[in-house]
Amino acid sequence: MNRTAAYQLTIAIPVYNEEGNLQALEDAFAAYLPKCLMKACVLLIDDCSTDSSLEMIQAICGRHSDFFYIRHTRRLGCSGAMKTAIDAIESEYMGYTDADLQTVPEEFNLMLPFAAEYPLVAGVRSSREDGWRKKLQSRIGNGFRRMMTGDGARDSVCPMKVIRMDYARRLPMFNGMHRFLPALVMLQEGGCYKEVMVTHRSRVAGKSKFNMWNRLRGFSDCFIYRWMRRNWVTYNRGENNLE
């Protein structure tokens, strides 16, 4: 049992070369945690940053008893960071968002009232503060994913999510899985999700890690999902005498 077991919600945040955002991230989440509708902590996952992010993360965790961190030994990307968080977290729920503060921490409180009823609560970004090219690429990508998965999700790559850990631990893991959370949750017995509108802001510092290659990879990942949907074995354990 680790220290996240003392909390109802652990908010996982992957970090890669975000030294320009980490002070604002610290301030935002330190202000939010006392107002959170659940007893909550933050888990920062350093994905082998090459700037001063790790040192800043360590300093943040030294200043706040509700902040924790894990450092990868090699770079794994967003899906790897989510897998790391799922394996580590022992709270009932996991929140997830990016380190760039393009979403608003306080808006987890818009999502948490639905967490008991829905295994996944997914944000949908309203009035996106991105350039027209990125908006167009995202619209095309979301449309193609909906066609391939049939999940109906309007914004499956919105980083802001809350998932029940009993569902999270059964998710099949592959590179790119973070783009398919609604579809993957729906593969499980009783799996469903709720969408909630959230704010989207412009990135203040640092550079986006998302580019055309990521989007093209997202198209190919749809075929991985289709194969997995046909072949994935899942079950809920019934009567037993193990415990």
Keywords:
seven-stranded mixed beta sheet, 243 residues, 7 strands, Spore Coat Polysaccharide Biosynthesis Protein SpsA, Chain A, alpha/beta, single chain, 8 helices
Which CATH architecture would you pick? Alpha-Beta Complex
Which fold name corresponds to the CATH topology? Answer: Spore Coat Polysaccharide Biosynthesis Protein SpsA, Chain A
When the domains are counted, the total is 1
* pLDDT averaged residue by residue: 86
Q: Which superfamily, in CATH terms, is the homologous superfamily?
A: Spore Coat Polysaccharide Biosynthesis Protein SpsA, Chain A
Distance between the termini: 18 Å
Helix and strand run: EHEHEHEHEHEHHEH
- Secondary structure tally: strands: 7
Largest sheet: 7 strands, mixed
Low-confidence stretches: none
Instruction: Count up the helices.
Output: 8
Percent helix, as a range, is 25-40%
- Specify the overall morphology: globular
What layout of secondary structure does this protein have?
Layout lengths: L8 E7 L6 H11 L7 E7 L6 H11 L3 E5 L5 H12 L4 E4 L11 H4 L8 E7 L5 H18 L11 E4 H4 L12 H6 L6 E7 L12 H20 L12
Parallel strand pairs: 1-2, 1-4, 2-3, 5-7
Antiparallel strand pairs: 4-6, 5-6
